[in-house]
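hey
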């Protein structure tokens, strides 16, 4: 038996699936069902889902305070004031910083950028960081991908004589910072129609607004779509609405005409941008950009993205590649320690969360490991490490548990916290760690239902392998790009026969490779690869040797080997068919 529950996602109206099949020229039922699950309810809806382009993006001036922000920046440009772009050290923050710095430089502005040091300044706006910015000669500071909860820091900026514009996408607190403008679609008073933009997308909207107020063509700013696409994929925002358009267009830009820094970064990563997709961004490009801020100075990543010289870009890309190698080793060591600690914690009794503290863990990798703890134990996880006189941490959650709300209930124990439903950062004093571990667990317990901590694989549709043909694949490809709230469709086939050789593959033999077919219809066999499913080898062998049929959950992908490309099934889980 599988240790995960297979759950067919519910369509609100099953008759809708039939209507979509009919409207879309007898579209196979699994695809029609997958469309219905993504909110498509008509031919026009399908055209919008598959074909929405740049012309469907919203007007930047629909965002509250956008007029104030654009006018203040235009005034600063015209009067040659020193503008400092204050970014953040992750992918979203560094791409945002590169975008606005390059844009303002192109307008002839006196602009410099500042990225806080993870260890010296901490996350987001800080009094120490603002002091550094003041020393840079700034009169206007534009905070990107941070600042919406920085009420105290905004007051401090005023005491320094700094005008502050905040350009963020995180969840605001009840009180907004006192700034020239606070751009955030998640503000309760903001009428902007789409609430889930990443920080870099909000930054592009700001640049477009400035461009408009200068009577220039705002569409020229689409040259930054490669940066926006990388940030959208890496920040794991909802791939619906505008984000879906921005990522799709960003991928097209990466494939056809990427900026030189990204081209050199891809070469170091040994990936071809001409084949770029969201997965390549998340697993190849994003981690290398992130590595700069995790282990050193995130300004290195911004400098790479701003490079207009191939020589400089190559040097910067090689530097990030070395940092990424270091990050991976540190990541592995931290993960090993955290997994052992988590096993001991959970062995002591029922816990609704996994909260771990080690004084010497590296702040640059605890977020990654927290995500893996969530995958391994299917419950919210927080990784905590010492930073000077304080303890800082990264929190990650699962579907159904809003981690930002859980942290809010512990706010009296925290120096600060911020984030959104599934990811957040925390800072607390060492003496409050033990109390926080228990209070946080209690807060999450209040949201837990009997089955919420049980790993579930949600399935789009049952599927007979006989429907998998060229048309099926051509339509399925148009579901991309995949990500949060537009995940790769998963299908469920039953009573399959295992054929051909069965083997574990990979360096550690952790992957499973075999082939299946539906014996009822005589269709040719389909290759199956199951990454990390080597533990199920015995089930597949038993199925083949004893003539027991197999049930399979899978997505579909192309596989190219020796110059030949064909479709294969990417197994998510498997089990022997129950009689």
């Amino acid at each position: 038996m599988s240790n995960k529950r297979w759950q067919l996602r519910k369509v609100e109206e099953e008759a809708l699936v039939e209507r979509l099949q009919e409207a879309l020229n007898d579209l196979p039922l699994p695809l029609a069902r997958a469309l219905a699950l993504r909110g498509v309810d008509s031919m026009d809806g399908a055209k919008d889902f598959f074909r929405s382009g740049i012309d469907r993006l919203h007007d930047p001036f629909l965002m509250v305070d956008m007029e104030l922000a654009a006018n203040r920046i235009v005034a600063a440009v015209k009067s040659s004031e020193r503008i400092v772009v204050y970014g953040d050290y992750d992918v979203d923050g560094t791409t945002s910083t590169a975008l606005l710095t390059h844009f303002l430089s192109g307008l002839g502005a006196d602009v410099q950028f500042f990225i806080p040091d993870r260890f010296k300044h901490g996350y987001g706006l800080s009094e120490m960081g603002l002091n550094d910015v003041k020393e840079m000669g700034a009169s206007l500071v534009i905070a990107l991908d941070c600042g919406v909860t920085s009420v105290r820091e905004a007051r401090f900026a005023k005491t320094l004589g700094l005008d502050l514009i905040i350009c963020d996408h995180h969840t605001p607190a009840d009180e907004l910072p006192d700034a020239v403008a606070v751009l955030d679609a998640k503000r309760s008073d903001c009428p902007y129609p789409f609430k889930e933009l990443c920080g870099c997308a909000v930054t592009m909207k700001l640049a477009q607004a400035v461009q408009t107020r200068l009577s220039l063509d705002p569409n020229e700013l689409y040259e930054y779509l490669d940066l926006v696409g990388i940030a959208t994929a890496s920040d794991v925002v909802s791939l619906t609405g505008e984000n879906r358009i921005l990522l799709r267009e960003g991928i097209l830009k990466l494939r056809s005409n990427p900026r030189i820094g990204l081209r050199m970064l891809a070469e170091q990563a040994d990936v071809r941008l001409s084949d770029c997709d969201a997965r390549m961004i998340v697993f190849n490009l994003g981690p290398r950009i992130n590595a700069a801020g995790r282990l050193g100075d995130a300004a290195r990543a911004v400098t790479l993205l701003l490079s207009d010289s191939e020589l400089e870009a190559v040097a910067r890309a090689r530097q990030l590649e070395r940092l990424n190698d270091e990050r991976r080793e540190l990541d592995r060591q931290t993960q090993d320690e955290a997994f052992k600690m988590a096993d001991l914690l959970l062995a002591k009794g029922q816990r609704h969360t996994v909260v771990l503290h080690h004084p010497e863990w590296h702040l640059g990798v605890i977020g990654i490991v927290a995500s893996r703890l969530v995958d391994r134990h299917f419950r919210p996880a927080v990784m905590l490490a010492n930073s000077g006189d304080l303890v800082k941490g990264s929190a990650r959650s699962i579907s159904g548990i809003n981690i930002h709300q859980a942290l809010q209930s512990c706010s009296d124990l925290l120096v600060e916290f911020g984030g959104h439903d599934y990811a957040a950062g925390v800072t607390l004093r060492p003496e409050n760690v033990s109390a926080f571990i228990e209070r946080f667990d209690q807060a999450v317990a209040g949201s837990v239902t009997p089955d919420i901590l049980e790993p579930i694989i949600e399935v789009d549709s049952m599927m007979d392998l006989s429907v998998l043909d060229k048309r099926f694949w051509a339509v399925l490809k148009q579901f991309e790009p995949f990500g949060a709230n537009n995940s790769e469709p998963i299908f469920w086939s039953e009573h399959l026969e295992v054929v051909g050789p069965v083997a574990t593959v990979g360096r550690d033999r952790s992957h499973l490779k075999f082939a299946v077919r539906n014996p009822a219809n005589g269709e040719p066999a389909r290759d199956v690869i199951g990454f990390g499913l080597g533990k199920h080898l015995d089930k597949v062998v038993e199925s083949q040797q004893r003539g027991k049929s197999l049930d399979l959950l899978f997505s579909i992908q192309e596989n190219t080997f020796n110059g030949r490309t064909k479709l294969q099934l990417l197994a998510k889980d498997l089990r022997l068919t129950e009689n």
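The two ends are 13 Å apart (CA to CA). Residues 350-445 form a domain with the Diaminopimelate Epimerase; Chain A, domain 1 fold (CATH 3.10.310.30).
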